[in-house]
Design a protein that fits this description.
Elements lengths: L10 E4 L2 E4 L5 H14 L20 E5 L2 E3 L2 E3 L15 H15 L12 E7 L5 E4 L10 E7 L1 E6 L10 E5 L4 E4 L8 E7 L12 E7 L9 E3 L5
Antiparallel strand pairs: 1-2, 2-11, 3-6, 4-5, 5-14, 6-13, 7-12, 8-11, 8-13, 9-10, 9-12
């Protein structure tokens, strides 16, 4: 938070997984929030994700570049209104590469690697995200996570199991979390959102998480089918 007596230090949570507090300044947070509100409008807007077992995710989602659905990617909202997915903005790609460079170093993403997916999840005070791995991409480039709004508990685990060992990290508005290398396939989730903790000046009720990924496929590919979660 601005004006904190003891600024929070950056921390390596696991090999290749780094938390950088307050990475986004207040102006950039507001700019991203305005953009997310525009992206959330239909067509191809904010939707409730339904799982193959008939359940629903409590966090709602909108996608850019590629549309994610359990468990793959498509160019249209195949589990919603069927509209073409909104384009992935170049500015988000630039932001993703800068985030990885700041967190893991300039060599963490090979030259020519382009971020081309954004998954934007909206959490109200009751929303959660179960432990899962980001495994539907055909690239092992680091995942970039940006937080806006309410503080959450981000549970970062290990590649082998949904259970312990894991570390709970407090993610506040403006925080950056990057995970790649040996932690790229680690299980992670959000067991709790602290409602009402967003910076008042941001004007957001709830939490937005912007996750940037590299699909690993050519722009003219039709679909990416992922593996079922283990």
């Amino acid at each position: 938070m601005d004006g904190e007596l003891f600024p929070r230090p950056r921390a390596e949570i696991a090999p290749g997984a780094v938390h950088v507090p307050d990475w986004l300044d207040a102006r950039t947070q507001r700019t991203l929030l305005d953009a997310c509100r525009a992206w959330a409008r239909p067509p191809a807007g904010l939707r409730t994700v339904r799982t193959p077992g008939g359940g629903t995710m409590t966090a709602r989602q909108v996608c850019l570049g590629w549309h994610w659905y359990p468990y793959g990617y498509a160019r249209t909202v195949v589990d919603g209104d069927g509209a073409p997915v909104k384009p992935f903005p170049a500015r988000l790609g630039e932001l993703g590469r800068r985030a990885v460079t700041d967190a893991l170093g300039a060599d963490a993403v090979p030259a020519g690697t382009a971020y081309d997916i954004a998954l934007i999840n909206f959490y109200d005070g009751d929303a959660r995200m179960g432990m899962h791995r980001d495994g539907d991409e055909q690239s092992d480039a680091p995942v970039v996570s940006l937080s806006l709004g309410d503080t959450c508990v981000f549970r970062f685990g290990n590649p082998g199991t949904r259970t312990r060992p894991y570390t709970d990290v407090e993610l506040r508005s403006g925080d950056l979390f990057v995970f790649g290398g040996p932690s790229r396939s680690a299980y992670h989730g959000v067991p709790r959102v602290h409602a009402g903790t967003a910076p008042p000046e941001l004007g957001l009720t709830g939490r937005l998480n912007i996750t940037l990924r590299v699909s690993g496929r050519s722009p003219d590919a039709v679909a990416i089918m992922g593996d079922s979660p283990s």
